[in-house]
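User: Um, what's this?
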Amino acid sequence: MRISTKMVVFLAGLGTACAIGSPPMLVPTTWAATLPKPAISEEAGAAVAQMGKSLLARQFSVKVTTLRVYAEASGQPLHIAHSMKITVRRPDRLRVDLTGDDGATELVYDGKTVVLMGLETKKYATVPVPATIQGMLETVVGKNGVDFPLADLLTDAPDKAFLLGVTSGREVGTATIDGVQCRHLLFTQPPGIEIELWVEQNDRAIPRRLIITYRSQPGQPSFIAAFSDWDFSVHPADAEFAFQPPDGAVRTELMAPTQPAASGQKGSGR
């Protein structure tokens, strides 16, 4: 997953942080062809490829809990936790319901517009976007700088997005997570970034845990995400992706984030 330089991103005017999980960097797939071929073992490559196929399902939902580092004004690293539910209906519907140490946020995409709302402040911003999840992500993340929930997993090529910038990868063992046998994979990306990914050891290979460690950063900060309650049998209706402002809600503008990075860059944007 791409961890951007904006580890805790605030929606100006919303009064709530929108640090919803692992912030990505979306890169057009044509760029990947110009990168050197990474040294990835057959087992690790096959597992990520199968994960990518599973995540291209037309519809699914998943719950994610995250813990990551942000820096206070003095530079002291602190941790912030979030829990979220992500609901996907490809090609053009997405919903994220987030609660965390810094408040609650909704992100709703209906195929035309993304709405981000701070539930405590009752302030929301809208952004016109393309009619695909991929195009929406490129607009909201790439152009508007919104810190988006694990966006690499929602692209048109989740496996390629995950491996972009990775220089090596291998399987280091197995582990049981929530009663499910998982492959434990380790990937590296310059400068000094280690990515551990646990995927189910079956034909789904869906992710169960993700840890990113920044070995070259002071204090070696990390990002942790735990996945649960995967459901590929959901059939979300259009109404689930339709935003209706609650009474007293105020519309505001989405502005570029100004908060400092919490743990530095991951490659060119992880």
Remarks:
- DSSP finds four helices and 13 strands in the chain.
- The first strand starts at residue 39 and ends at 40.
